[in-house]
């Protein structure tokens, strides 16, 4: 837990600066309103999540060990447009760090990293990042992001904003943390065709009525389906389930799709507009991990359920931006 990085966090109540106590950091208090924030299980708690809409994420990221360094490194490069190694010495914000697989990569590469997430997944993230004193994990809300504005060299948000009740607001909060000339990379779920959207909305609505334990068992059942050749590449164009070769990742991916309270789907045009509105001039669309003529066609036409809309851009350096 890194105290210098604490200078970049703000009181979520009044935006005052925070003063830390303890080595390692044990608590922080607002120098303006005096409110105190505890460090628990390695994470600074600037927001609580008991009973809130991110509970399923706390469950999944703490339960499943999904960090796979080689794969995470490749996915990070695809979804941010930069390599983790290129972040050495840079100031980085992981907006919605979940269990911390990408925050750890950046910290390991030598970046100074703040990872924030609203769920108790911060406990897993803090464990993964514990060996890196150049990292700080905080439980905080992207909709009221208690972080200094316009200072980060790189801000990325991978698969997060569409899980908030107000993705556009969250985008704005995240974007404002990027310094002029700094980079923002965002990955969101892509809008599918109307029949796919209807089927998946209905299935997710049903899933939302189940207990987490029952849903987890069903996700494990879908994990079995995801291992059956041919079926796992065809049926998943109608009903979403993971066909990842690793069992744990398949089950976790399935839970990650069906359990969250909020899950919105977006278009490239919409995300481009958001970038422009926040002062990022030329957002570049990043290609997905998989490729090939059929895959590319299906991706462009929104047929890949769980596919992404992925843009990266530098913040303009004009006074307006
Ligand atoms: C699908 S996970 C992605 C986690 C991580 N980026 C990754 O790819 O491993 C989405 C994350 O968004 C977080 N999240 C949702 N709403 C949030 C909010 N308002 N503020 C902060 N985090 C939020 C959830 O707690 C969850 O960990």
Describe the structure.
The chain has an 11-stranded mixed β-sheet, with helices on both faces. Helix 8 (212-225) crosses helix 10. With 321 residues, it is of the alpha/beta class. The chain has helices at residues 3-6, 55-63, 69-80, 101-108, 122-129, 167-175, 194-207, 212-225, 231-234, 247-258, 268-277, 293-300; strands at residues 18-21, 27-30, 36-40, 43-45, 91-95, 112-117, 135-139, 152-158, 178-189, 284-285, 308-314. The model has no long low-confidence stretch (mean pLDDT 95). It has 2 domains: 49-190 and 266-314, 3-Layer(aba) Sandwich (Rossmann fold); 209-258, no CATH class. Strand 2 and strand 3 form a beta hairpin. Bound molecules: S-adenosylmethionine. Residues 54, 57, 61, 96-98, 101, 117-119, 121, 141-143, 158-160, 163-164, 256 line the site of S-adenosylmethionine (SAM). Residues 54, 57, 61, 96-98, 101, 117-119, 121, 141-143, 158-160, 163-164, 256 line the site of S-adenosylmethionine.
Low-confidence stretches: none
Strand/helix succession = HEEEEHHEHEHEEHEHHHHHEHE
Q: What is the beta-strand fraction?
A: 15-25%
Strand order of the largest sheet: 1-2-3-4-7-6-5-8-9-11-10
The residue fraction in helices comes out at 25-40%
Question: How many E strands?
Answer: 11
- The whole-angstrom Rg is 19 Å
Largest sheet: 11 strands, mixed
CATH architecture of the largest domain: 3-Layer(aba) Sandwich
Mean pLDDT: 95
């Amino acid at each position: 837990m890194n105290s210098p990085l604490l200078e970049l966090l703000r009181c979520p109540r009044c935006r005052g600066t925070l003063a830390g106590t303890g080595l390692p950091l044990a608590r922080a208090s607002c120098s303006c309103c005096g409110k105190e924030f505890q460090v628990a299980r390695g994470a600074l708690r600037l927001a609580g999540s008991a009973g809130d809409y991110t509970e399923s994420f706390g469950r999944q990221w703490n339960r499943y060990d999904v960090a796979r360094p080689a794969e995470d490194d490749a996915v990070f490069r695809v979804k941010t447009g930069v390599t983790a190694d290129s972040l050495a010495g840079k100031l980085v914000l992981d907006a919605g760090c979940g269990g911390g697989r990408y925050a750890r990569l950046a910290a390991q590469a030598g970046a100074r990293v703040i990872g924030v997430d609203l769920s108790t997944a911060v406990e897993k993230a803090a464990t993964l990042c514990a060996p890196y004193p150049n990292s700080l994990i905080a439980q905080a809300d992207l909709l009221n992001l208690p972080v200094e504005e316009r200072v980060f060299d790189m801000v990325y948000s991978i698969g997060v904003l569409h899980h908030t009740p107000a993705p556009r607001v969250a985008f704005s909060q995240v974007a404002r943390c990027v310094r002029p000339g700094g980079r923002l990379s965002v990955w969101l779920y892509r809008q599918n065709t109307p029949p796919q959207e209807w089927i998946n909305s209905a299935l997710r609505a049903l899933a939302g009525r189940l207990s987490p334990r029952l849903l987890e068992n069903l996700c494990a059942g879908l994990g079995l389906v995801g291992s059956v050749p041919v079926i796992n590449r065809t049926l998943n164009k109608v009903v979403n389930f993971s066909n990842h070769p690793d069992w744990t990742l398949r089950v976790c991916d399935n839970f990650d799709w069906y359990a969250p309270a909020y899950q919105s789907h977006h278009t490239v045009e919409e995300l481009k507009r958001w970038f422009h509105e926040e002062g990022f001039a030329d957002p570049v669309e990043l290609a997905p991990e998989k490729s090939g003529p059929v895959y590319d066609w299906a991706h462009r036409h929104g047929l890949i359920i769980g596919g992404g809309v992925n843009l990266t851009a530098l913040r303009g350096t004009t006074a307006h931006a």
